[in-house]
Amino acid sequence: MEVINTNEAKYDRKAELQAFDETKAGVKGLVDAGITKVPRIFVQPSKSEDSTIDSNKKFSFPVVDLDGIKEDPIKRKKIVQEVGHASETWGFFQVINHGIPSRVLEEMKDGVIRFFEQDTEVKKQWYTRDLTKEFTYNSNFDLFKAPVTNWRDTFTATIAPIPPNRDILPSVCRDILLEYTNQVMELGDTLFELLSEAIGLEPNHLKDMGCSEGLMALGHYYPACPQPELTLGTSTHADNDFLTVLLQDNIGGLLIFYRQVVVHLSITNDKFSLSLTIFLIDQFQLISNDKFKSVDHRVLANKVGPRVSLACFFMTNFAPTQRRYGPIKELISEHNPPKYRETTIKEFTTYFNNKGLNGTSTLLHFRL
């Protein structure tokens, strides 16, 4: 990896960030302008390479088949065990036969592309760094806080608990975004039931706690990069919600951190082309008192593009709720005391957003 001296007097990072932000054109704007070199604000610092899995080694990701889950109690019990094992070890699993039609999945990916490939002058009306708005578009929510800028543009739509005003959502993706997220919320009910049972609670326990009442949809657009070895699509992090449902295309680039090994998770097998990836996230690790693990992940930049994804975060974000979350009391004992203090979703989210993707865990701030 090329080493860049960021101490050169002529390099004013803050000014370059400001100039990039003021274009309101994002990373796509740079690509459209025909750049052939990655601007310095995107260049990752030189560091030792991570361990990566041998491409020739067979590696079995946890895959959960939800077919028959409502009709077959024996199969449901098996699925609960699979979900529990994946949540304790990997921190994620893929689901197939999840009930969301292939038409909806494909149209949702197309909707993300349509939004970002609108004329820049049209997109600018949604460009903002006010993350409390119902619909936002920008490049790098932590642009002025993170140590390095990612090769990625994003839109964010708040879907629940307060439904968005339809007129605020962009017409190029409005209908499919609402259709897809409605079905994701139905899937979320099933997933939270399975997770409740897997951790030894009643099926409705997590839903009754409000874990499934909020949803945010994040559409990510990773343009083709002229020098992908110098930058990242998304820096290493764990998300800040309870559960993330990820829809991604087949370009690849998603890396999962598993037992000090970096594993490339791509959709190259037809069997999994309609799968969704389910991440256990920091707030879930907190309420499970470390029983279930959140998963660190990152996204590579790529010469091929655009890569698109739609991540649905189960969280209430900045919604006006005073509900407090700490380790679930039924999981606490003399031998398993609480490891985290109680917090609100708003406090947790605000800390995450202010910290940015800086390589440190949000959970450390809330640990007792």
UniProtKB/TrEMBL annotation:
Q: Keyword set for this entry?
A: Iron, Metal-binding, Oxidoreductase, Vitamin C
Q: Does the keyword Transferase apply?
A: no
Q: Name one GO biological process term.
A: response to molecule of fungal origin
What does the record give under GO molecular function? 2-oxoglutarate-dependent dioxygenase activity; L-ascorbic acid binding; metal ion binding
Q: Which InterPro entries match?
A: DIOX_N, IPNS-like_FE2OG_OXY, IPNS-like_sf, Oxoglu/Fe-dep_dioxygenase_dom
Q: Does the keyword Magnesium apply?
A: no
The Fe2OG dioxygenase domain covers: 211-317
Pfam families attached to this UniProt entry = 2OG-FeII_Oxy (PF03171), DIOX_N (PF14226)
Can you say what this protein is called? 1-aminocyclopropane-1-carboxylate oxidase -like protein 12
